[in-house]
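Checklist before submission:
- one chain only
- standard amino acids only
- sequence pasted in full

Submission:
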Amino acid sequence: MSLLYKSTRNSGKTVTASYAILKGLAEDGGLFVPTEIPRLSVSMDELKDKSYQETAFAVMKEFLTDFTEEELKSCIEKAYDGKFDTEEIAPLVKEGGAYYLELYHGATIAFKDMALSILPHLLTTAARKNQVKNQIVILTATSGDTGKAALAGFADVKGTKIIVFYPKAGVSRFQELQMVTQKGENTSVVAIHGNFDNAQSGVKAMFEDKELAKELDAFGYQFSSANSINIGRLVPQIVYYVYAYAKLLKNGEIAQGEPINVTVPTGNFGNILAAYYAKKMGVPIEKLICASNENKVLYDFFQTGTYDRNRDFVLTTSPSMDILISSNLERLIYLLTGEDDTEDRRMMEELRTKGAYEITDQMKEGLADFAAGYASEDQVKQTIHEMYANTGYVLDPHTAVASSVYGEYFRKTGDTRKTIIASTASPYKFAGSVMEAIDPEGMEADEFKRIDKLRELSRMEIPKAVEQIRNAPILHTRECGIQKMKETVKEILGVS
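Returned file contents:
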């Protein structure tokens, strides 16, 4: 059976999965969603003995129905290979009363690798299927991790170019080094003088700019996205929640059908939305615990039913979550409206013009699957310190946000269900913040000396991704103001 996709802002028009992946964002500015969320066609009992790659096929074939079995298996095989430093791809580690799903064993040591390793293959396959003759220009905004993972995934991929915008003062030094040292003839990296929301808004505006699309087409280019607004990013993220539940079952940690909770540190809402989709597919997930840092726009939304980005933007030690416009929340809002595209459009227009919208009491009832919490910077530091002191296990700041929020949820509710915590980045990616929490006395000024010190204190090997940039030359130095983003893209592409 063929599963089609529609825009959250126009339910009347449907497209294939490959077309939705190729476009990234719908022409009306909405996000592509499946006409229905499919159920898993295999049981958890069957899945528990399957590899990550086999689980990926079992999940993704339900969503990407216009890909042949051969095409999809080829994409999966190319994505989940030796670039991951563990055979399991996404290991589960039991520490401190929870199960940490380590999603950072890919080429750029962050969870974005899980989806961005496969997206280039899905996208180039989709281009062939849709007889696209233009070069695909991947246009992406990043709060730190998406940028490097997308650059690594698309570097020198035939028929593509990639342009990444990041906030100059809004990522860690290590994240910045990962991006500005990226090789590849088709890669461009631009630091903007603004925050991530500025970068994301600028990118979305270019996607919606029909005149720009015509100009690009005349030069043989068309945009697509590697951000989590692309359904080709979201679907692969569902896989690891299915895989994690199956592995808990295989390891005898849970009984068949036993419900679990999932805690996810999130800013753009994509990673926790993937867990929600997994639940809708039939994975026995009880509570989805949404963990925010001090930019707690999502926490406030779950508490009040009002989404309000009119607040100060806080730079934290978990920069990938420093977001006030959570794009993927629109997909949940659309479901909460009963798939009413008119109502969704109205709220998104209110967000654009007034910076806020409010959901109805009936829609609030649909949030029962979720719990929410946030962690202050002091709580993040304390969580990293205590976890290391008590167990020797090292958390990065994003994972520490989730761990802290889960601890608070447990204390408040007494909910004893087994809980998976999405561990979204390697501690080595944020060695300065981690070392400040673990051993402030021994803090080194140099980024790589901190990394070496962390290696001494922890039981973790330094990932290849770290060593590769230790002495790598800076290849990208371009910067621009917020108002110059479109001009910069045209300059990079030679469009005038």
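Reviewer check: Residues 231-250 form the longest helix (20 residues).
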